[in-house]
Amino acid sequence: MDLTSTVFVDILSPLAAFSATRPRNPESEAPAEPHGHGPGCQSRHAGDPGPGPSWATSFVNPRNRIDSLTQPLSRPKWRLDGADVDGRRFFAVPTFAIDAPPLRIDVYVPPFEDYPPGLRDILKPEAAIYARRKNKRDGVMGLPIAQHLLRALEAWSSSTPAAAGDFEAQYWSAPFGSQIVVASMAAQLRDVNMLLCPDYGVEQAMLSVDALQAMWQLPSGAWPPVVDWAQLRFRRQLHEAITLVRVAQQPWRRDGADSGDFERDDAPDMVFKSLTRDQRYMYNELRMLLTLRPHAHVIPRPAYVVTKKGRFGGRRGVCGFVLQYYPLASLKERLLRHADEEEHLPDVTAAAAAASAGENGRNMIPLAQRFRWARQVAEALVHINAHSAGFYPDLKPDNVVLVQPSQSGEEPMTTMTDAVLLDLEQRGGWFSWSPPEVAYVEYLELLAAMPEAADEAELADTLTTQLGEYMPGWAPGRQHDRYRNTAGGFSAPWLALLRDSSTDNTNKSSSSMLAKAQVFMLGKLLWCIFEVRPRVRCGIDHELLQDNDPPPLESGAAFPAFTRATPVDIRALIHACTLGAPEWEPGAAARRLAGVVLRGGRLVPAAAAHRSLRDVTDGDTRLAVATWWAAEVRRAREFMAELLAARRAHGKGQRQDDESGLLALVRRRPALEDVLAELERVERELT
Question: For the region Disordered, what residue ranges are annotated (predicted)?
């Protein structure tokens, strides 16, 4: 099954449990256009090739042939820094915008299925989903779609009609967070239809420092210095929310009048954190950073808060904040590099291999280093949970960066690196990393919020009632809700755990279900660290889209399989931390993993991964997906019934001494402090 723009609903969502039985309606599944795509978009494309005879549209015809998708342009006017996880949003900037304030104008390409079939075969746009980031050989820049897009941007931005004015002037007149939309892709650059779409919504949703202070009531001196957006100098877009910048003393001017305000080689690179969608999470993270006590293994408070004056109305609001930059890489990138090194080891003799190999015949990251990372992440979680609204719901290797000890404040005389926890948005995480007691509630939220997609209105009504009983006031969320002052963020399942932790008689930081949910994620991270694996490979999840041609599941490269790389006591600790994971059910691992995998850029049933792709139909894949998700939805509904029964009994003052099921397993997980103590004990014994 080819990847399409609807994969996040058709495959990675519990709505897929119903996909094998409901009729296919491609028009109803068409994704919404990027926000801002509407009458305000400015198009500078006048040609429309329209339908024609087969020879006229054939890619064998020299007129339609794409001459080069590999040779770099000699004097490029655009630079491509990467792509978002959906493969449709590209981080492309005109070269005149480098070393200027970041406008966060990204480029959106059409849904993959809207490409002419022959052109899609050539450009392979879906490869942008699973292309490895920060890897020159396999990264986004090497993709045909990336090279063609760069050439199309060059042609488009150079063809401004005289009446429309200078393209550079048009670009700088656009509001922060606008978009460039590729309305239709074509082989010939002159036929690619691009639109500049000003979007005033992002700036209009920004809140001022005074408005945030009125809500947060922070003590005097809690705010870092405030700088104008025009003082930032764009370096590179690292991620949808992360821009590498430098901070100048003077605002930027198009005439270059500020060029001498700092020495470019001396100014440090820093991170500008901003969101052009769902800014409420950015404000929630800012509040957490400004109220959390400093810790060596948690990202420090912002160096600056950044404000920008809106294009419409002139109101000034907070558009982001500036953080310390950690250039070494994330823990995931380090683990991926190790996997690449293993994959590309040269052939050696058995004796040489035995002499150089580590545990289980694999070259290992030193055990002392793995213990160091594990202990430091556990320390960071304990620290965050000491905060009144502190919890961390998105623990995975992507959100741990590695630093030299001098950057984290620990002893400098070591060759090992330290771990620092990033991203305090409290948005929630991917299903494969979320504890089941959270993921199951999230499944039901999705089903209740989209009854028309599931074609199960009665089920949606039942789930809405149950969710409202478990989380009073629950209502289907909206993607672009404005920020409101809510301690703990906006994830309803996590907020429910936070509320329960403040009303029971246990210590929030150690024994509550809120803490036990984070222990679960810590257990999975410990598995990745000690097994030296970048992914857990648990079922159907966003993670599988980054995992093209994975190793066979029987190779032990998926949670909860262990090799000799993990000490015995740490295996027991990981098991205790992840109690309640369906993978631990007797014989369940194979059934749960029997979903789908990405092979050759196509989704195929895991059970058919070794068969020829020609023998696997789309129907086979959809059936495997629906079967997997049907089992997950069943688990989720059973858990909700268990949860509500416990809630009702508690409300009547009845004790649940005979509690069984998932809730009992959750309560048996160790406390965060106990996990840290056990890591320290085993580390002392083995290193």
Answer: 20-60
Tokens of residue 359, six digits: 């545990």
- Check if the beta carbon of residue 494 is closer than 8 Å to that of residue 488: yes
With contact defined as beta carbons under 8 Å apart, do 521 and 434 qualify? Answer: yes
Angle at 149 between CA 166 and CA 62, to 5 degrees: 110
User: 281-325: per-residue pLDDT in tens?
Assistant: 999 999 999 999 999 999 999 999 999 999 988 899 999 999 999
CB half-sphere exposure, 556, CA atoms < 13 A:
11
Contacts of 512 (CB under 8 A, 6+ apart): 497, 500, 501, 504, 506
Q: Closest Cα to residue 299, out of 280, 337, 326?
A: 326
Cα dihedral: 509, 510, 512, 515 (round 10) = 70
Q: Are 417 and 428 in contact (CB under 8 A)?
A: no
Q: Which of 80, 529, 480 is nearest to 276 (CA)?
A: 480
Helices and strands: H and E segment counts in the chain: 23, 16
Residue with tokens 């299925």: 113
Q: Output phi, psi for 108, to 5 deg.
A: -110, 125
In angstroms, rounded to a whole number, what is the distance separating the alpha carbons of residues 60 and 66? 10
Q: How far is CA 158 from CA 68, 80, 100, 185, in A?
A: 19, 17, 20, 18
Cα dihedral 18/473/648/502 (nearest 10): 120
Name which of 354, 433, 360 is nearest 400 in CA terms.
Answer: 433
- Where are any strands of DSSP class E within 457-579? none
Under-50 pLDDT residues of the chain: 25-33, 35-39, 44-50, 52-53, 134-138, 263, 344-361, 454, 507, 509
Other Cβ atoms less than 10 A from the Cβ of 327: the count is 11
- Region label for 430, one of left (φ > 0), alpha (ψ between -120 and 50) or beta (otherwise): beta
Which residues make beta-bridge pairs with 316? 309
Strands 89-94, 78-83: pairing is: antiparallel
Phi, psi of 387, deg, nearest 5: -75, 150
Closest C-alpha among 590, 442, 434, 443 to residue 523: 434
Query: In this structure, is the dihedral angle defined by the CA atoms of residues 520, 522, 524 and 527, taken in order, positive or negative?
Result: negative
